[in-house]
Design goal:
Blueprint: H1 2-31, E1 36-41, E2 44-50, H2 51-67, H3 85-90, H4 95-102, H5 120-150
Antiparallel strand pairs: 1-2
Helix pairs in contact: 1-2, 2-5
Length: about 170
C-alpha cells in the first residue's frame, strides 16, 4: 500500500517543483541576471557573481531532481503474504519460474518482481529522492537567509507580518 502512496506523491511533488522552478525561480534568474553580488566560499567573500547566476544554480539542481525521479514498480498484491497467489499472478503462472523459488534453489525473486506485500528497495529509492530534493531546497533557503544577513538581499514582508508567534514584538 505504501508504494501506491509514493506513486501518488511523486506526481504532486513533480508538479510543485516544476511550478516553483518555471514560475518562481526562473523569472528571478532572468530579472537579476545582471545584478552583481559577492560570491562566497566557506563563508568568506570570493569572486563577484550575479544573483541570476546564483539562482540559476538552484534551478539546475531542481531540474536535476526532476530528471532523477525514481521509477517505482507497480506490484500486484493478492492473497496473504507468502501464500504464493500474489507471486503466481506476478509471474503469469509459469511453473518453471515458480518452482525454483518455492523449493529454495533460487534465493531471490526474478528481476522486477517481489514476493513481499511492500517493496523496501522502491521505498528506499523514493525516500532518497525526497532527501535529494529536500537538500537542494534547504540549500536555497539557507543561501537566501545568508544573503539577507549580509544585507545583499532584502526580503519583503507583507504589512501583517509580526514575527514568530512566541515573539510577536520582533519584526
Amino acid at each position: 500500500v505504501r508504494l501506491y502512496q509514493c506513486h501518488a506523491s511523486i506526481d504532486v511533488i513533480k508538479n510543485l517543483l516544476k511550478d516553483f522552478n518555471n514560475n518562481g525561480l526562473m523569472p528571478l534568474v532572468n530579472q537579476h541576471k545582471g545584478l552583481e553580488c559577492a560570491g562566497y566560499t566557506h563563508w568568506q567573500v570570493a569572486s563577484t557573481t550575479t544573483l541570476g547566476t546564483r539562482l540559476s544554480f538552484y534551478g539546475h539542481l531542481i531540474h536535476q531532481s526532476l530528471l532523477s525521479v525514481p521509477r517505482l514498480r507497480q506490484k500486484k498484491i493478492g492473497g496473504s503474504v507468502g501464500d504464493g497467489r500474489a507471486l503466481n499472478e506476478l509471474l503469469g503462472k509459469d511453473i518453471n519460474i515458480i518452482l525454483p523459488i518455492l523449493n529454495g534453489t533460487m534465493l531471490l525473486p526474478p528481476p522486477g518482481n517481489s514476493i513481499q506485500s511492500s517493496d523496501g528497495i522502491n521505498e528506499l529509492q523514493f525516500a532518497h529522492w525526497l532527501c535529494f530534493i529536500g537538500a537542494h531546497l534547504h540549500k536555497l533557503a539557507f543561501d537566501f537567509r545568508f544573503l539577507a544577513s549580509t544585507g545583499e538581499l532584502r526580503i519583503k514582508r507583507n504589512k501583517d507580518y509580526r514575527g514568530s508567534s512566541s515573539m510577536p514584538h520582533k519584526n
